[in-house]
Amino acid sequence: MTETAAIGNFKEPRLMISKIRALGCHFALDDFGAGFCSFNYLKKFPVDYVKIDGQFIQNLINDETDRVLVRSMCEIANRLGKKTVAEYIENPRLIDVLREIGINYGQGFVLGKPEEKLLQNEYIAIEKLLAKVSKSLL
Fold first, then answer.
1. Angle CA(21)–CA(41)–CA(10) in degrees, nearest 5?
2. Which pLDDT score is estimated for 137?
3. Is pLDDT at 79 greater than 90 in this prediction?
4. Which H or E run contains 84?
5. Could you tell me if 86 and 67 are in contact, meaning their C-beta atoms sit under 8 angstroms apart?
6. Is pLDDT at 135 greater than 50 in this prediction?
7. Could you tell me which of 98, 111, 110 has the C-alpha nearest to residue 52?
8. 118 or 51: which leads in pLDDT
9. In the predicted model, is pLDDT for residue 65 greater than 60?
10. Are 38 and 70 spatial neighbours (Cβ–Cβ below 8 Å)?
């Protein structure tokens, strides 16, 4: 879920997230740090993961400000019991920096490019998921 998808309406997304999490699914707050109310969203939504926006990751090796910001985002997320994901890992040297900062997971071309094969046999039809959610609302 991106921060912008939740702007102006906390109640409905919180309810939806709670019900889907009850089915065993996990949620990530995507593009964290890019919006104006990032910490408010982190506080309000019961997400499991915080995906730190790639704009903070891309120059992490050379930009002390980005390192300070990413370190603080990671620390706050971890203290709130959330795992962190760094987006846009496109330089192998970033991996050591991210480990040192305490980031839990990474996403980016240096780790692997998206492949359609992963989705051919490993998916859950949206109809099945929605049917389960509808039953849990009753």
1. 70
2. 43
3. yes
4. strand 83-86
5. no
6. yes
7. 98
8. 51
9. yes
10. no
